[in-house]
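Lab notebook, bench 4. Still working through the backlog of constructs that have no structural model yet. Next entry is a single chain of 167 residues. Request: give me the C-alpha coordinates for it.
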Amino acid sequence: MVDLGTVSLEWGTLIFQIIIFLVLLALVRKFALGPALGVMEKRRQHIEAEITGAEQSRQEAEKLLAEQRRLLDEARQESKAILDRAAKQASDEAARIVEEAKTSAERLKADASADLAREVEKAKAELRDQMAGLSVMLASKIIEKELDEAAQKSTIDQFLKQAGDRL
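Model written out:
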Protein backbone atom coordinates (compact mmCIF):
# COMPACT_ATOMS: atom_id res chain seq x y z
CA MET A 1 0.00 0.00 0.00
CA VAL A 2 1.22 3.43 -0.87
CA ASP A 3 0.52 6.31 1.34
CA LEU A 4 0.22 9.66 -0.37
CA GLY A 5 -0.56 11.74 2.50
CA THR A 6 -4.09 11.22 3.50
CA VAL A 7 -4.90 9.28 0.37
CA SER A 8 -3.94 5.70 0.49
CA LEU A 9 -3.88 3.39 -2.44
CA GLU A 10 -4.30 -0.31 -2.26
CA TRP A 11 -2.91 -2.11 -5.23
CA GLY A 12 -5.13 -5.12 -4.88
CA THR A 13 -8.30 -3.07 -4.83
CA LEU A 14 -7.01 -0.99 -7.71
CA ILE A 15 -6.28 -4.03 -9.85
CA PHE A 16 -9.61 -5.56 -8.87
CA GLN A 17 -11.41 -2.37 -9.82
CA ILE A 18 -9.56 -2.20 -13.18
CA ILE A 19 -10.52 -5.83 -13.89
CA ILE A 20 -14.14 -5.17 -12.93
CA PHE A 21 -14.09 -2.03 -15.09
CA LEU A 22 -12.72 -3.98 -18.06
CA VAL A 23 -15.30 -6.76 -17.54
CA LEU A 24 -18.07 -4.18 -17.31
CA LEU A 25 -16.67 -2.43 -20.36
CA ALA A 26 -16.64 -5.75 -22.26
CA LEU A 27 -20.20 -6.52 -21.09
CA VAL A 28 -21.44 -3.05 -22.02
CA ARG A 29 -19.72 -3.37 -25.37
CA LYS A 30 -21.15 -6.82 -25.98
CA PHE A 31 -24.68 -6.32 -24.69
CA ALA A 32 -25.33 -2.59 -25.07
CA LEU A 33 -22.89 -1.00 -27.45
CA GLY A 34 -22.74 -3.94 -29.90
CA PRO A 35 -26.53 -4.15 -30.42
CA ALA A 36 -26.79 -0.34 -30.54
CA LEU A 37 -24.04 -0.21 -33.17
CA GLY A 38 -25.73 -3.13 -34.97
CA VAL A 39 -29.03 -1.26 -35.02
CA MET A 40 -27.28 1.86 -36.23
CA GLU A 41 -25.46 -0.15 -38.92
CA LYS A 42 -28.74 -1.75 -40.00
CA ARG A 43 -30.33 1.69 -40.08
CA ARG A 44 -27.40 3.04 -42.14
CA GLN A 45 -27.71 0.11 -44.55
CA HIS A 46 -31.48 0.59 -44.76
CA ILE A 47 -31.05 4.31 -45.51
CA GLU A 48 -28.40 3.52 -48.15
CA ALA A 49 -30.72 0.93 -49.69
CA GLU A 50 -33.57 3.45 -49.70
CA ILE A 51 -31.33 6.08 -51.30
CA THR A 52 -30.12 3.55 -53.89
CA GLY A 53 -33.71 2.43 -54.54
CA ALA A 54 -34.86 6.03 -54.85
CA GLU A 55 -32.02 6.76 -57.27
CA GLN A 56 -32.90 3.70 -59.34
CA SER A 57 -36.56 4.68 -59.29
CA ARG A 58 -35.62 8.20 -60.39
CA GLN A 59 -33.49 6.82 -63.22
CA GLU A 60 -36.28 4.44 -64.29
CA ALA A 61 -38.76 7.31 -64.13
CA GLU A 62 -36.47 9.42 -66.31
CA LYS A 63 -36.14 6.53 -68.77
CA LEU A 64 -39.92 6.06 -68.83
CA LEU A 65 -40.42 9.79 -69.27
CA ALA A 66 -37.94 9.84 -72.15
CA GLU A 67 -39.67 6.80 -73.70
CA GLN A 68 -43.08 8.44 -73.29
CA ARG A 69 -41.80 11.63 -74.90
CA ARG A 70 -40.32 9.61 -77.77
CA LEU A 71 -43.60 7.72 -78.24
CA LEU A 72 -45.54 10.98 -78.09
CA ASP A 73 -43.26 12.51 -80.73
CA GLU A 74 -43.70 9.40 -82.91
CA ALA A 75 -47.47 9.59 -82.46
CA ARG A 76 -47.43 13.26 -83.42
CA GLN A 77 -45.33 12.55 -86.49
CA GLU A 78 -47.56 9.63 -87.45
CA SER A 79 -50.73 11.70 -87.01
CA LYS A 80 -49.18 14.49 -89.09
CA ALA A 81 -48.28 11.97 -91.79
CA ILE A 82 -51.84 10.57 -91.70
CA LEU A 83 -53.31 14.07 -91.96
CA ASP A 84 -50.94 14.91 -94.81
CA ARG A 85 -51.90 11.69 -96.64
CA ALA A 86 -55.59 12.38 -96.05
CA ALA A 87 -55.24 15.94 -97.35
CA LYS A 88 -53.36 14.69 -100.41
CA GLN A 89 -55.98 11.99 -101.03
CA ALA A 90 -58.75 14.57 -100.66
CA SER A 91 -56.96 16.90 -103.04
CA ASP A 92 -56.38 14.09 -105.53
CA GLU A 93 -60.00 12.98 -105.22
CA ALA A 94 -61.22 16.56 -105.73
CA ALA A 95 -59.00 16.91 -108.80
CA ARG A 96 -60.28 13.58 -110.13
CA ILE A 97 -63.91 14.62 -109.56
CA VAL A 98 -63.30 17.98 -111.27
CA GLU A 99 -61.62 16.20 -114.19
CA GLU A 100 -64.51 13.72 -114.44
CA ALA A 101 -66.98 16.62 -114.35
CA LYS A 102 -65.07 18.41 -117.12
CA THR A 103 -64.96 15.23 -119.18
CA SER A 104 -68.65 14.62 -118.59
CA ALA A 105 -69.51 18.24 -119.50
CA GLU A 106 -67.42 18.00 -122.67
CA ARG A 107 -69.11 14.71 -123.55
CA LEU A 108 -72.56 16.23 -122.91
CA LYS A 109 -71.59 19.26 -124.99
CA ALA A 110 -70.36 17.02 -127.80
CA ASP A 111 -73.53 14.91 -127.59
CA ALA A 112 -75.68 18.05 -127.66
CA SER A 113 -73.71 19.37 -130.65
CA ALA A 114 -74.13 16.04 -132.42
CA ASP A 115 -77.86 16.00 -131.62
CA LEU A 116 -78.17 19.57 -132.88
CA ALA A 117 -76.29 18.70 -136.07
CA ARG A 118 -78.54 15.67 -136.61
CA GLU A 119 -81.63 17.79 -136.05
CA VAL A 120 -80.34 20.44 -138.47
CA GLU A 121 -79.63 17.76 -141.07
CA LYS A 122 -83.05 16.22 -140.45
CA ALA A 123 -84.70 19.63 -140.81
CA LYS A 124 -82.72 20.29 -144.02
CA ALA A 125 -83.74 16.91 -145.40
CA GLU A 126 -87.38 17.56 -144.55
CA LEU A 127 -87.12 21.01 -146.13
CA ARG A 128 -85.57 19.51 -149.28
CA ASP A 129 -88.34 16.91 -149.40
CA GLN A 130 -90.99 19.60 -148.98
CA MET A 131 -89.31 21.83 -151.55
CA ALA A 132 -89.12 18.92 -153.96
CA GLY A 133 -92.79 18.17 -153.41
CA LEU A 134 -93.69 21.81 -153.78
CA SER A 135 -91.58 22.12 -156.89
CA VAL A 136 -93.33 19.14 -158.40
CA MET A 137 -96.69 20.62 -157.45
CA LEU A 138 -95.73 23.98 -158.91
CA ALA A 139 -94.51 22.40 -162.09
CA SER A 140 -97.69 20.38 -162.41
CA LYS A 141 -99.83 23.46 -161.90
CA ILE A 142 -97.80 25.39 -164.44
CA ILE A 143 -98.09 22.56 -166.89
CA GLU A 144 -101.82 22.24 -166.28
CA LYS A 145 -102.29 25.81 -167.13
CA GLU A 146 -100.37 27.21 -169.84
CA LEU A 147 -100.86 30.68 -168.87
CA ASP A 148 -99.46 33.90 -169.92
CA GLU A 149 -96.66 35.54 -168.03
CA ALA A 150 -98.88 37.55 -165.62
CA ALA A 151 -100.97 34.50 -164.78
CA GLN A 152 -97.81 32.39 -164.19
CA LYS A 153 -96.42 35.09 -161.91
CA SER A 154 -99.70 35.20 -159.98
CA THR A 155 -99.75 31.38 -159.69
CA ILE A 156 -96.12 31.30 -158.45
CA ASP A 157 -96.79 34.04 -155.88
CA GLN A 158 -99.89 32.21 -154.65
CA PHE A 159 -97.92 28.96 -154.49
CA LEU A 160 -95.07 30.57 -152.51
CA LYS A 161 -97.61 32.05 -150.11
CA GLN A 162 -99.17 28.60 -149.58
CA ALA A 163 -95.72 27.02 -149.22
CA GLY A 164 -94.71 29.67 -146.69
CA ASP A 165 -97.76 28.85 -144.60
CA ARG A 166 -96.79 25.17 -144.57
CA LEU A 167 -93.18 25.84 -143.46
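Notes after review: Helices lie at 11-144, 149-166. The chain has a mean pLDDT of 84. Flag for follow-up if needed.
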